[in-house]
Amino acid sequence: MAAKAPGRWMVVAVPYLWLLVLFLVPFLIVFKISLSQDAIAQPPYEPVFDLAAGWDAFKEAFSQLSFENYSYVLSWDNEFIEAYGSSLWIAGISTLLLLIVGYPIAYGMARAPKSIRPTLLMLVILPFWTSFLIRVYAWIGILSPEGLLNQLLFALGLIDEPLQILATDTAVYIGIVYSYLPFMILPLYSALEKMDETLLEAAADLGCPPIAAFWKITWPLSLPGVLAGCLLCFIPAVGEFVIPDLLGGSDTLMIGKVLWTEFSVNRSWTVSSAVAVLLLLVLVVPIVFYQNVQAKEMEGR
Amino acid sequence: MSTGVTEKTQTTIGGIRRKFAPWTDPAAVPLIRYENVSKRFGEFVAVDNLSLDIYEREFFALLGPSGCGKTTLMRMLAGFEDPTEGRITLAGQDLVGMPPYKRQTNMMFQSYALFPHMSVWENIAFGLKQDRMEKGAIDARVDEMLKLVKLEKFAKRKPHQLSGGQRQRVALARSLAKAPKVLLLDEPLGALDKKLREETQFELMDLQMKLGMTFLIVTHDQEEAMTVADRIAVMNHGKLVQVAPPAVIYEQPNSRYVADFVGDVNILEAKIEAVAPGNVSLYTSVGGGAKLSIAQNVEAKVGDSAFVAIRPEKVRVDLEPPAWQEANCLRGEVWDIGYLGDLSIYHVELEGGVRIKAAKPNLTRMVERPITWEDKVWVSWLPDSGVVLTS
């Protein structure tokens, strides 16, 4: 037993070390930057902790840290709060759309003959083989006023003038739903596939028609998958930057885009760090919720 | 639940109690009728042009090996499969094409199929809620069912918090709650251990009598079928081989298949020498050649080959030639003895290499047995113990 102990310790230590070095430390650096002030310097903020300058200099630097950036970001005069709200709204609507689109696909896959299920699964994952950026760019070609969609609608005689989809929130929804669909389908599929189909036979046998049986049996039993899929889509969608930047219009307000502007255009490392830390706080709530649900589900087994 | 009554009785107009056997009554109207029913899955014929009548208040067992079509036959009654050809009626109503949720049958599934996200109470109430019964009536009925299966204390538990036996009871209560015209039981006791299974068999019988319902059970366990059923249908390759009460299936099987499937049996090849009313004389070449005599009416010609089936418990083993009869005596040597505690099974190798099994109850404590390995012995049986089979 004694010989085993160091090996065991290693197994636990490696992931913790990984998280510490590659997640916690960078986060603390970002957090520290968010408490600093902008400066025309290299790096572009102050104070800078210089351990070589001695304890007094460290204390002096520490006293310069302040929450000023947070009060700036959280002030109603600036657009940040609006951007957070709008991000949550867009991510929420997108997640709902993803669920509506993804559920029937996952259901169809889970009820397909066993022999073709791996192929269907492969087809869902297949888009990942092409760069995400290229796939989002492709939507510009489809949605633009002279794009494929408008050409098609013209050819069919359904419209007289091009639909303005690109550079609107609609395009952002389309982009998010398209890009995140596999993340919705996979957890749903795994939940639905596990379900014993005799349960539906039992429901029918007890006098429950198929549609009612779906809501009474299939849906509640797929809820863990629904939650996992929704959170898996919602969390990254809130901070999404590429899709609103490429497909959205100038009035599409999302926090990822705001953060990018703050960082690259305004060159304020400190404010963008504060935005990032607050974004993390906003997302911690659903993440903790997700983990609770998972823990509960594990208990249930 | 105690089994007070062991034999089902029905009262006739004269008030005379007689055995429950509606299938012998030409005036009785069957509750369930399968009429020339076939079911094919692609090339595979699961049920082959089968007709069967099942009567009200009957406990009917479909018995056969896996793949013989017994489950398909039951699932067609529940509505999960539709017959390819033929008609199925329940109480005169044509069932073909009617979806399962409109049928007045309820099924207890082999896997129990309890809804994992619902409590015991909700599981049992599920069917009642579908009927839009009022709240008070549902409460009363669920409580009644819980009491029936003795699970009152477990109403709030989820299925995964119950033992296998308790789950089985919940499944039973759920399928009984709607008081269906027929209760279908698909291998209901397969997941229970032997002791619990035997107990539950008697409880099922008791319940069936108490509720006066029609039960249709599918099983591959012949002992289970024999214990619970009023009639057994032995199936093979989608066809009914024999439909009869358990004692008839056991004592008068109509074919080698039935004799072999239900219980243990010795089968000897023989040639018919003489046919008389109530008696057949045969000759078998095994055991040094012997005359056989079986008290049975057989439609066969002299010279036909036939099989004689004899159950191990009806075979005697003696060291001396039996003086009381001439026929049905064969010579051999004890090849092996299986000691089961209550019984000893003697495997006797007859001259010519055929082995015959004889079961002897161990009536006294035995340390030294009078007959032992490699003894030269005589096996014999009475003329009314064996059965002549022509197929």
Descriptive overview:
The complex is a heterodimer of chains A (301) and B (391). Chain A is mainly alpha-helical and 301 residues long. Chain A has a single domain, classed as MetI-like (MetI-like fold), CATH 1.10.3720. Chain A contains 13 helices and two strands, in the order αββαααααααααααα. In chain A, strand 1 and strand 2 form a beta hairpin. Chain A starts with a helix and ends with a helix. Chain B is an alpha+beta fold and 391 residues long. Chain B folds into two domains: 173 residues, P-loop containing nucleotide triphosphate hydrolases (Rossmann fold), CATH 3.40.50.300; 126 residues, Nucleic acid-binding proteins (OB fold (Dihydrolipoamide Acetyltransferase, E2P), Beta Barrel). In chain B, the strands form five sheets. Chain B has a six-stranded mixed β-sheet, sandwiched between helices. Chain B has a five-stranded antiparallel β-sheet with strand order 15-14-13-16-22. The two termini of chain B are 43 Å apart. At the A-B interface, helix 9 and helix 10 of A face strand 8 and helix 2 of B. Chain B: Keywords: ATP-binding, Cell inner membrane, Cell membrane, Membrane, Nucleotide-binding, Translocase, Transport. Chain B: One of its GO terms (molecular function) is ATP binding. Chain B: InterPro entries: AAA+_ATPase, ABC_SmlMolc_Importer, ABC_transporter-like_ATP-bd, ABC_transporter-like_CS, Mo/tungstate-bd_C_term_dom, NA-bd_OB-fold, P-loop_NTPase, PotA-like. Chain B: Belongs to the ABC transporter superfamily. Spermidine/putrescine importer (TC 3.A.1.11.1) family.
